[in-house]
Design brief:
single chain, about 325 residues, alpha/beta, Rossmann fold, 11 helices, 10 strands
């Protein structure tokens, strides 16, 4: 009941922000899913929500950035009430909003689900465009990972079992962290081994920024058009950073998504498979971008079950 109330609260907030979206359209938008595992076969359905829920404690928001950071950024931390002598996995959670707005409150319900599954859930803010452009937001996530490592003893976190979770632009940032935050040109100066993720759950992922026209959101994020900043677009595109060292991915996407068309999820999934990466694709039929988050059905539960298989909370 609490999870449903949180989702209804989020739905009302989004409808207030996107008044042109019809309530009737949202409620009638979905009918069925396609859930594929790594080799294109139907995935085995595992209900994470059916497992025994763990009580948790939500800490007050606290800064995760150092004093000298350009902007003070906060994180909300959810600590499962499990025996602290046993190390447990953690989840870095990043909200959407076109890299320019929204807040961790959008991801509160998901953070609670993860905490109830035994994850130390860390739900973060990040800097916004156009004041701060790529790769500033990736640097924020790398700093958040360093902060989790610094608190690993206090929170009983197993730093080898940190997963990433995000939606829309948050999915983009989490994916980029997973694929390019440890080594390579985007690892310096704030990345490195501490930024490594063990698995990733993302929805509505903009996987290849070069697929977009030169619209305001992406141009503001990168700081120029595709012609002006072509190499930056390539570096900022998770699909173009996939290697055989990528972590496992669970991807969900609405088939009616017009803001981030479904081929972003499908092509990214195929690229992961081509590189031998364990992955699952969960397509929400008849849902657009916002509906695939607000009316996501069992996508998050299936995604958490996938994470559970990777890091065994």
């Amino acid at each position: 009941m609490r999870r449903m109330a949180m989702r209804n609260k989020s739905l009302l907030k989004y409808l207030q922000c996107f008044g042109g979206v019809s309530v009737l359209t949202l409620l009638l938008s979905g009918c069925g899913v396609t859930h594929l595992a790594s080799q294109g076969e139907a995935a085995n359905e595992v209900d994470a929500a059916a497992q025994q829920a763990t009580p948790y404690t939500r800490l007050p928001p606290m800064p995760y950035t150092p004093d000298a950071w350009p902007e003070t950024l906060n994180a909300e931390v959810y600590l499962p009430d499990t025996p602290t002598q046993a190390r447990r996995p953690a989840a870095l959670i990043v909200h959407g909003g076109g890299w320019r707005n929204r807040s961790p409150e959008d991801m509160q319900g998901i953070a609670e689900e993860l905490a109830a599954q035994g994850y130390v859930a860390v739900n973060i803010e990040h800097r916004f465009v156009p004041t701060y452009r790529f790769p500033a937001q990736l640097h924020d996530l790398q700093q958040a990972m360093a902060w989790i490592h610094a608190n690993a003893d206090a929170w009983a976190v197993d730093t080898q079992r940190i997963v990433g979770v995000g939606f829309s632009s948050g999915a983009h940032l989490v994916s980029l962290l997973a694929l390019a935050g440890v080594e390579g040109p985007l690892a310096s100066p704030h990345g490195g081994e501490h930024a490594r993720l063990a698995a990733v759950l993302v929805g509505g992922l903009p996987s290849d920024l070069l697929k977009f026209d030169d619209g305001r959101l992406v141009v503001d994020f990168i700081g120029g058009t595709r012609a002006e900043k072509n190499e930056a677009y390539r570096l900022a595109s998770p699909e173009r950073q996939v290697t055989s060292n990528a972590p496992p991915f669970f991807i969900f996407h609405g088939t009616w998504d017009r803001l981030v068309p479904v081929d972003h999820g499908e092509d990214f999934y195929q690229t992961l498979i081509d590189n031998g990466i364990e992955s699952e694709l969960y397509l929400l039929h008849g849902r657009g971008h916002f509906a695939s988050f607000l009316l996501r059905g069992g996508a998050i539960e299936a995604g958490i079950a996938f994470l559970n298989q990777q890091v065994a909370p």
